[in-house]
């Protein structure tokens, strides 16, 4: 079952300049992107910083004004809804952010941080609220007496769990995880990733998993889309993307992953050299005269590549 279908999404930000702060141009942060998420899957969006991943996620959440395009979810085009019509869907789609330090209000105790989103939707007595927060804290592996503590009393990994607990209280169907472990120590990254996978099973969640670290994305995702300058340049199963990349930008991303296994060293050095050569010689195969990637064309049932 398709849970989310994004069609021809564009998010263009006006750029103002000069003394009168007139609009002098647009940043095409997301420039005609289409993809689908099946219920229960983890779909990755990868690409370097500035490629438009977060803007895509926020647009789906209704946090960014959409320039054009459609966001189909639960039989509705969310992009066409007014603020009040959108409200019931806000519950279904939650976002987890990269930075567990700045995304939690330092002046609030966990009980208020975690129950804040649900207060917009339900009336609960203080006792009910407290019980609910304790339940979600225990689901994310934190002690129930943590409810009266402040965010600074927790480590980075624990704070990310607090952010996750906060998102879960609304019983969302889709979680947009925007680089959820990028700010964490490598030693706790795997822990949080495994935890996200456990939650997915327990709560039947679908993930849109945003990241720039291809190792992490491969570990988490069944399918992924590769973004470059606001465009999807390739989409496929994780194996297709990693074993058989077709677009030069995907190849460059993969060539940049260091392979430390000695038996693959020569192979990866050769791959890097070939990719650098191809990039120089065949740039025009992959980008039009304005440097814009082409539309995606199917190369198999599951694999699409931006080619002319
Ligand atoms: N609110 C905004 N106003 C203007 N430009 C923005 C805004 N948000 C993002 N951008 C620009 O859009 C582009 C994509 O940003 P973003 O989606 O954050 O990329 P990513 O998450 O892949 O790093 C960048 O050039 C960024 O500077
Ligand atoms: Mg981002």
Give the CA-CA distance, first to last residue.
31 Å
In terms of quaternary structure, the protein is single chain
Number of helices: 10
Unique ligands: adenosine-5'-diphosphate, magnesium ion
What's the CATH H-level homologous superfamily?
P-loop containing nucleotide triphosphate hydrolases
Gyration radius (Cα, Å) is: 21 Å
Along the chain, the helix and strand elements come as EEEHEEHEHHHEHEHEEHHHEE
Strand order within the widest sheet? 6-7-8-3-9-10-12-11
β-strand percent reads: 25-35%
Organism: Priestia koreensis
GO molecular function: ATP binding; ATP hydrolysis activity
Keywords: ATP-binding, Nucleotide-binding, Transport
Pfam family, one: ABC_tran
What does this 3D model show about the protein?
It is a single chain. The chain is α/β, with parallel strands linked by helices and 308 residues long. The protein has one domain: 3-Layer(aba) Sandwich (Rossmann fold). It is built from ten helices and twelve strands. The chain has helices spanning 53-61, 83-90, 110-119, 126-139, 156-168, 186-203, 214-220, 238-243, 248-255, 265-286, and strands at 2-17, 22-38, 42-46, 68-73, 76-77, 93-96, 174-178, 206-211, 223-228, 231-237, 296-298, 304-306. Strands 6-7-8-3-9-10-12-11 form an eight-stranded mixed sheet, sandwiched between helices. A four-stranded antiparallel sheet has the order 2-1-4-5. The longest helix is centred in the C-terminal third of the chain and has 22 residues, at 265-286. Bound molecules: adenosine-5'-diphosphate and magnesium ion (MG). GO terms for molecular function: ATP binding; ATP hydrolysis activity. This is Peptide ABC transporter substrate-binding protein. It comes from Priestia koreensis.
């Amino acid at each position: 079952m398709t849970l989310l279908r994004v069609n021809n999404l564009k998010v263009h930000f006006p750029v103002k300049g000069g003394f009168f702060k007139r609009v002098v141009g647009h940043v095409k942060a997301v420039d005609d992107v289409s993809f689908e998420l099946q219920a229960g899957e983890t779909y990755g969006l990868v690409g370097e910083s500035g490629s438009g991943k977060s803007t895509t996620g926020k647009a789906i959440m209704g946090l960014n004004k959409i320039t054009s395009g459609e966001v189909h979810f639960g039989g509705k085009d969310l992009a066409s809804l007014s603020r009040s019509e959108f409200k019931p869907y806000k519950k279904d789609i939650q976002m987890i952010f990269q930075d567990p330090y700045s995304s939690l209000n330092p002046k609030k105790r966990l009980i208020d941080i975690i129950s804040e989103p649900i207060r917009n939707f339900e009336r609960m007595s203080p006792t009910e609220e407290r019980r609910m927060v304790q339940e979600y804290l225990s689901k994310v592996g934190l002690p129930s007496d943590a409810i009266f503590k402040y965010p600074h009393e927790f480590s980075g990994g624990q704070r990310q769990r607090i952010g996750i607990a906060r998102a879960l209280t609304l019983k969302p169907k889709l979680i947009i995880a925007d680089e959820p472990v990028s700010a964490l120590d490598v030693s706790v990254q795997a822990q949080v990733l495994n935890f996200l996978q456990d939650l997915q099973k327990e709560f039947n969640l679908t993930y849109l998993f945003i990241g720039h670290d291809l190792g992490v994305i491969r570990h988490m995702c069944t399918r992924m889309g590769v973004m470059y300058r606001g465009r999807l340049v390739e989409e496929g199963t994780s194996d297709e993307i990693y074993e058989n990349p077709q677009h030069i930008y995907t190849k460059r991303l993969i060539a940049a992953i260091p392979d430390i296994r000695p038996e693959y060293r020569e192979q990866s050095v050769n791959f890097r050299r070939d990719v650098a050569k191809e990039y120089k010689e065949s740039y025009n195969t992959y980008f039009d005269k304005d440097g814009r990637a082409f539309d995606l064309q199917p190369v198999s049932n599951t694999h699409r590549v931006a080619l002319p």
